[in-house]
């Protein structure tokens, strides 16, 4: 139900109900694509595979590919 957007400090975060959801780790999307979120923020340093909701995703520099 949330979205990924850039915050005033320049960090990209998963926003749910109007606030950064620091409890969320998984895959979330915005108009630019899908992203790997770790503790509420896009992890641009992560590349590899993640499993979220039973689906395996390939991640490169935080960007999710399926």
Structural topology:
Layout: E1 3-6, E2 12-16, E3 19-20, E4 26-30, E5 33-38, E6 41-42, E7 48-52, E8 55-60, E9 63-65
Antiparallel strand pairs: 1-2, 2-3, 4-5, 5-6, 5-9, 7-8, 8-9
Describe what you observe in this structure.
Helix content is 0%, strand content 58%. Strand 4 and strand 5 (33-38) form a beta hairpin. The strands form two sheets. Strands 4, 5, 6, 7, 8 and 9 form a six-stranded antiparallel sheet that branches. A three-stranded antiparallel sheet has the order 1-2-3, with no helix packed on it. It starts with a strand and ends with a strand. It has strands at residues 3-6, 12-16, 19-20, 26-30, 33-38, 41-42, 48-52, 55-60, 63-65. The radius of gyration is 11 Å and the shape is globular. The model has no long low-confidence stretch (mean pLDDT 97). It has 66 residues and is mostly beta strands. The protein has no helices and nine strands.
Keywords:
mainly beta, three-stranded antiparallel sheet
- The succession of helices and strands, N to C, reads EEEEEEEEE
Low-confidence stretches: none
Mind telling me the C-alpha Rg? 11 Å
Tell me what portion of residues adopts beta-strand conformation: over 45%
Q: Estimate percent helicity.
A: under 10%
The strand count comes to 9
Structural class designation = mainly beta
Largest sheet: 6 strands, antiparallel
User: How far apart, in Å, are the first and last alpha carbons?
Assistant: 20 Å
Mean pLDDT: 97
Shape call = globular
The number of helical elements comes to: 0
């Amino acid at each position: 139900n949330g979205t990924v957007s850039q915050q005033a400090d320049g960090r990209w975060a998963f926003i749910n109900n109007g606030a950064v959801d620091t409890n969320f780790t998984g895959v979330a999307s915005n108009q630019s694509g899908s992203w790997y979120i770790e503790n509420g923020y896009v992890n641009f340093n992560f590349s590899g595979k993640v499993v979220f909701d039973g689906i395996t995703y390939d991640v490169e520099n935080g960007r999710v590919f399926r």
